[in-house]
Design a protein that fits this description.
- By secondary structure, this protein is mainly α.
- It has one domain: Fumarate Reductase Cytochrome B subunit, CATH 1.20.950.
- It is built from nine helices and four strands, in the order E-H-E-E-H-H-H-H-H-H-H-H-E.
- The strands form two sheets. A two-stranded antiparallel sheet has the order 1-4.
- Helix 1 packs antiparallel against helix 2 and helix 5 runs antiparallel to helix 8.
- The termini are close together.
- The relative contact order is 0.15.
């Protein structure tokens, strides 16, 4: 049977994807280095060592105790200043790279054509059917495999237009310079410690998205999926009726 190969991702899309992947990895690992310096999260006007924590990771926060192991942080040793340098540099690279990706996606119609679900796709019956198919690990084939399914569309839209902006806004709110320039951000998010908590929780949601994304890639056929993000070419799984 002749393979049905389509050109799925442009060169620019692939470059931006892999650059984003690198930046996200470094930002997350350096963020854990920063978090390890004080593995307690607060809400509101709290934030001193003796204040009750809203969320605490790492037992009772004994001296020298870290929430995350060395292999999960950048640098791997305790270095708050180093972690901040890695974090801020790659965070800004990620911001500008993501802005370029979003601009290109709007210009070439990718967002409207591939990510925005139709009214029929967001109906309760359609969503329930797609969720049930995912739970049974039944993936799209034939013509349907050429496009994102509704759950993929909603997940990508959520990351691009909800989680990513939340990460940026909460990160900026923790900056003293930004607090002076835009004090309304502190009021909007309930204070710097609340912004730190939201920043961390949003990061964990992004980690969850990445884990699910990687699992789906492995289950759907890692060689085919990786090839499409390296060469741009994707082999469409044949319809059972073909």
């Amino acid at each position: 049977m002749e393979r049905n190969v389509i050109y799925r991702h442009s060169v620019l899309t692939r470059i931006l994807h892999w650059l984003n992947a690198l930046c996200v990895l470094v930002v997350l690992m350096s963020g854990l280095q920063i978090f390890n310096a004080h593995p307690r999260l607060y809400w509101g006007e709290y934030g001193a060592n003796t204040d009750p924590a809203f969320i605490q990771i790492g037992g009772h926060n004994a001296p020298g105790e870290k929430a995350f192991p060395p292999w999960a942080t950048i640098p791997s040793w305790q270095d708050l200043a180093g972690g901040r340098r890695w974090h801020f540099f790659f965070a800004w690279v990620l911001v500008f790279n993501s802005a370029l990706y979003l601009l290109v996606s709007f210009v070439n119609g990718h967002v409207r054509r591939d990510l925005v679900p139709t009214r029929a796709e967001i109906s309760a019956r359609h969503l329930a059917r797609e969720l049930w198919n995912h739970l049974r690990l039944r993936f799209s084939f034939g013509q349907a495999a050429r496009h994102y399914n509704t759950l993929q569309k909603l997940a990508y839209l959520g990351v691009i237009f909800v989680l990513a902006p939340m990460m940026l806004v909460t990160g900026l709110t923790m900056s003293p310079g930004m607090d002076a320039a835009a004090p309304w951000l502190l009021e909007l998010l309930g204070g710097r410690q609340s912004a730190r908590t939201l920043h961390f929780l949003t990061a964990m949601l992004i980690v969850l998205f990445i884990i699910v994304h990687l699992v789906m890639v492995l289950l759907a056929g890692p060689l085919n999926e990786l090839r499409s993000m390296i060469t741009g070419r994707f082999v469409v799984p044949p319809d059972n009726a073909e």
